[in-house]
Amino acid sequence: MSPAVKFLIGLLAVIALGWIHHGPLGNGEALVQRLETQAQTAIAATEVPGIQVRLSRNPLSRAATISGKADEFQREGQGSLKGINDIVRETEGISDVQWSEPPARGGGN
After folding, report:
1. How far apart are CA 44 and CA 79, in angstroms?
2. Strand ranges of the sheet holding 96-99, from the earlier edge strand across to the other edge
3. What is the pLDDT of residues 67-107, one digit of tens each?
4. By the number of CB atoms within 10 A of the CB, which of 2, 22, 27, 44 ranks highest?
């Protein structure tokens, strides 16, 4: 058997095992749920009311979509004061942060 064929067989085996692990066995869904829960817990500590964090389930994604009324300061922070974006990004495993709507004007509440 040629080295190229051996490589392709190995590659297909790894892809199949990865798909089985994250798909039918449910480990991908469990990971996304755990990340979402950790990010939501971190956001709750900011005491900004009405902020929700969601991660996509179809397809599974580690990119966080944040919703709720928050002004630009609450979202971005300033200097050493962390904003909501920074807090969610610090959740180990989150790959990206985006908001579902533009910043609120004024006080954000």
Report:
1. 21
2. 52-57, 60-67, 96-99
3. 999 889 999 999 889 999 999 999 999 999 999 988 777 65
4. 22
Residue linked to tokens 């004024």: 106
- 98 class by beta-carbon count within 10 Å (0-12 exposed, 13-18 middle, 19+ buried): exposed
Alpha-carbon distance of 64 to 61, in angstroms, equals: 8
66 touches 97 (CB < 8 A): yes
Antiparallel, parallel or unpaired: β 77-78 and 81-82: antiparallel
Chain segment 21-80, per-residue pLDDT in tens:
877 887 888 999 999 999 999 999 988 999 999 999 888 899 999 999 988 999 999 988
Question: Which three-class secondary structure state does DSSP give residue 97?
Answer: strand
Q: Give the span between the Cα atoms of 105 and 109, in whole angstroms.
A: 9
| Positive/negative CA dihedral, 26, 32, 36, 42 | positive
